[in-house]
Automatic annotation (TrEMBL):
<dbReference type="InterPro" id="IPR036291">
    <property type="entry name" value="NAD(P)-bd_dom_sf"/>
</dbReference>
<comment type="similarity">
    <text>Belongs to the short-chain dehydrogenases/reductases (SDR) family.</text>
</comment>
<dbReference type="InterPro" id="IPR020904">
    <property type="entry name" value="Sc_DH/Rdtase_CS"/>
</dbReference>
<keyword id="KW-0560">Oxidoreductase</keyword>
<dbReference type="GO" id="GO:0016614">
    <property type="term" value="F:oxidoreductase activity, acting on CH-OH group of donors"/>
</dbReference>
<dbReference type="Pfam" id="PF13561">
    <property type="entry name" value="adh_short_C2"/>
</dbReference>
<dbReference type="InterPro" id="IPR002347">
    <property type="entry name" value="SDR_fam"/>
</dbReference>
<protein>
    <submittedName>
        <fullName>Putative oxidoreductase</fullName>
    </submittedName>
</protein>
Length: 257
């Protein structure tokens, strides 16, 4: 499909080549979307997972080779101004048709050792930024009621709770924000859904976690970024326009095992 024929999608959280965000970007590029990819290098450096010197640009080059126009923007989504600035940057590149929110703050801690600073940063990045991104995007949608699809939001969530308290709590808030957007903005043509991809090893799993997660997945293997991308691509397609306000599990049966 020719570049630009479908419009632009903003994809957050494309900081490392080995990430769900990178898989989402590549899949959307193959479907003919132009892309704005956001990342925040200090977060990836802080986690210490394997990465190259120019991972986001490397992902962008793969997407460009598929025919997409791609812009890379570094943004700290803990800043209250960053979401609006990011949506403006995305809209400036072409008709903004959707948001795919795969950014996150995720640092393990529990009830007794979570710090107030960590709690506030998790909620700023995982919940507040999602709300502000959706709000800034929704302000660009047509105001008249319509049965047509005018925009799409897809966000990634998680089941983590115990010993990952601020992450799990803020992801729970994210779920409610996205579903609220589906209801409140549905008459204006917005479709909004949440995906829980289950355990996907993007560099954070120990061998023991990898083994346990695989054993608890009825499909017999762990998920991959491409598995999540397949569902996102469907939701962003014409065929996915009837699905909205859902928390979808794309996890090989992990939740039911």
């Amino acid at each position: 499909m020719p570049s630009g024929s479908r419009g632009t999608v903003l994809v957050t959280g494309v900081g490392r080549s080995r990430s769900i965000g990178a898989g989402l970007a590549k899949g959307l590029a193959e479907d003919g979307w132009d892309l704005v990819l956001s990342h925040w290098r200090p977060y990836d450096d802080r986690l210490g997972y394997a990465q190259g010197a120019h991972d986001t640009e490397d992902v962008a080059e793969v997407c460009r080779a598929a025919g997409s126009q791609v812009r890379v923007v570094e943004a700290d989504l803990a800043s209250e101004d960053a979401p609006g600035e990011l949506v403006t940057a995305a809209a400036d590149t072409g008709p903004l048709r959707g948001l795919v929110l795969s950014h996150t703050e995720s640092v393990d801690s529990s009830i007794l050792d979570t710090t107030l600073e960590s709690w506030e940063r998790h909620f700023a990045v995982n919940a507040r930024a999602a709300w502000l991104l959706i709000k800034a995007y929704a302000e660009r949608l047509p105001t008249a009621e319509t049965a047509e699809v005018t925009g799409r939001v897809v966000a990634l969530t998680s089941d983590h709770t115990a010993h990952n308290l601020p992450y799990g709590a803020s992801k729970g808030a994210l779920d409610r924000i996205v579903i609220a957007a589906a209801v409140e903005l549905g008459p204006r043509g917005l479709r909004a859904n949440v995906i829980n991809p289950g355990p996907v090893d993007t560099g954070w799993m120990t061998p023991e976690i990898h083994r346990l997660a695989r054993e608890q997945t009825p499909a017999g293997r762990l998920g991959t970024p491409e598995d999540t991308a397949g569902l996102v691509r469907f939701l962003m397609s014409d065929a996915g326009g009837w699905i909205t306000g859902q928390l979808l599990y794309s996890n090989g049966g992990f939740r039911t095992s």
